[in-house]
Write a structure and sequence with these properties.
By secondary structure, the chain is mostly helical. The protein has helices at about 10-15, 20, 25-30, 45, 50-55, 75-85, 100-115, 130-135, 135-140, 155-160, 160-165, 180-190, 200-210, 215-225, 235-245, 255-270, 275-285, 290-305, 310-325, 330-345, 350-365, 380-385, 425-440, and strands at about 65, 90-95, 120-125, 145-150, 170. It folds into 4 domains: about 40-170, P-loop containing nucleotide triphosphate hydrolases (Rossmann fold); about 180-245, Helicase, Ruva Protein, domain 3 (Orthogonal Bundle), CATH 1.10.8; about 255-345, Zinc Finger, Delta Prime, domain 3 (Up-down Bundle); about 370-440, no CATH class.
């Protein structure tokens, strides 16, 4: 006997009571702006004088690339642009789409154009497409089949083809500041009809945890409402306990990594130990390899301090050895100490610049023979050729300085190292000036 099928009335009752109908929409989805004026945090694009505002005033829209971190409104703005310009909105993700999906989207756009309807093709994570896939956009962009709006979290200069970039305008989306995130939270409270159960310090902490991501802020707010019992108000410690803290946005293989290490290096070069410590802490907090940072501090010691304080290299190397010996987290303090040392040390790139100048001269000069008087003469023939003839042993000369010329004759005397008058190099400068004086007195001075 077969099972009795439910009646249509029973089915309708089941659907009405089922999860499909009652499944709640995420807060971030419910608060998605319905017009461009409701988008927060991107006034430089959507404000009265914003780039998109001006485009819409002319009623023309060219292809665009939206570059910015997650949760800043790139997808929402693309969708609203299609509405504002009466274009059909088509969305693809480069993560899940391939050549077949692109061809299908292009064919549909061509058919749509024949009926007088244009297409805005929004491609999320557009940088994930390979070169050939990116090139496939070019003909349909040029003939007006689609208006491409690509979204990327990576620097388009590095991740997108030059040909694609030449046909699209890049608009930068900014991380949402505290004021924009507060505006989102206030809107969420209005929609929910209740206040977030957070004291002032916890509310500020939630904003910091969102890290400029509007979607994350609303997701965290939802988690707080779910966790709170009746009349319960969380302080900052309680908030951290229930949320377990959201990790900072940081990809060790992507641009955020290079931005922060650049900021650390330039803070050291600029003799700002406080800023240098901040960026060091940012990277360590995000999970950066401490040994990578220790190696970079060694680089800073030789590139930006050099002989202005020769001890800087010793301290930087010692910090690396201390981390190897202690591990985390104690060893990270040694790296922090080295960062403070190199940031506060006198600065000089004289050795770095001298090495670069010498390398250029070596490449340009070719295989020039050193002057014969400084070449050894282990054979009779070499002695007959003048090897070693006229060499003066500096330790036998007054002041242990002969002043002989050691450059190839065809090259002539060169000056690569020019130490500044600061730090330990002040003493080196005095020494070099004294030796130059002796050369002149002994008729061996170089042309100035």
């Amino acid at each position: 006997m077969s099972a009795k099928r439910p009646s249509s009335q029973t089915t309708n009752l089941f659907t009405a009571a089922g999860m499909e109908q009652d499944a709640p929409r995420p807060l971030a989805d419910r608060l998605r702006p319905r017009k461009l004026g409701e988008v927060v945090g991107q006034d430089h694009i959507l404000g009265p004088d914003g780039a998109l505002t001006r485009m819409l005033e002319t009623r023309t829209l060219g292809s665009l690339v939206f570059w910015g971190p997650p949760g800043t409104g790139k997808t929402t703005v693309a969708r609203l642009l299609a509405d504002a310009t009466d274009l059909h909105f088509e969305q693809l993700s480069a993560i899940f789409s391939g050549v077949a999906d692109l061809k299908k989207a292009f064919d549909a756009a061509r058919a749509r154009r024949e009926t007088g309807k244009g297409t805005l093709l929004f491609v999320d994570e557009v940088h994930r497409f390979n070169r050939a896939q990116q090139d496939s956009f070019l003909p349909v962009m040029e003939d007006g089949t689609i208006v491409l709006v690509g979204a990327t979290t990576e620097n388009p200069s590095f991740e997108l083809n030059a040909a694609l970039l030449s046909r699209a305008r890049v608009l930068v989306f900014h991380s949402l500041d505290a004021a924009a995130l507060e505006k989102l939270l206030a809107h969420a409270e209005e929609i929910e009809g209740r206040k977030l159960p957070l004291d002032a310090e916890a509310r500020a902490a939630l904003v910091r945890m969102a890290d400029g991501d509007g979607r994350a802020a609303l997701t965290l707010a939802e988690e707080v409402w779910r966790a709170a019992r009746t009349e319960e108000i969380f302080d900052a410690a309680g908030l951290q306990e229930i949320l377990q803290r959201r990790a900072p946005i940081y990809d060790k293989s992507a641009e955020g990594h290079y931005n922060l290490i650049s900021a650390l290096h330039k803070s050291v070069r600029g003799s700002d130990p406080d800023a240098a410590l901040y960026y060091l802490a940012r990277m360590l907090d995000a999970g950066e390899d401490p040994l990578f940072l220790a190696r970079r501090v060694v680089r800073m010691a030789v590139e930006d301090i050099g002989l202005a304080d020769p001890q800087a290299l010793v301290v930087a190397n010692a910090a690396k050895e201390a981390y190897d010996f202690l591990g985390s987290p104690e060893g990270e303090l040694a790296i922090a100490q080295a960062v403070i040392y190199v940031a506060t040390a006198p600065k000089s790139n004289a050795a770095y610049a001298a090495y670069g100048a010498a390398m250029r001269a070596a490449k340009e000069g070719g295989s020039l023979l050193p002057p014969k008087h400084i070449l050894n003469a282990p054979t009779k023939l070499m002695k007959q050729e003048g090897y070693g003839s006229g060499y003066e042993y500096d330790h036998d000369a007054p002041d242990a300085f002969s002043g002989q010329d050691y450059f190839p004759e065809a090259l002539g005397r060169q000056a690569f190292y020019d130490p500044p008058d600061r730090g330990f190099e002040r003493e080196i400068r005095k020494r070099l000036d004294y030796w130059a004086k002796l050369r002149r007195e002994r008729g061996r001075g170089r042309d100035e």
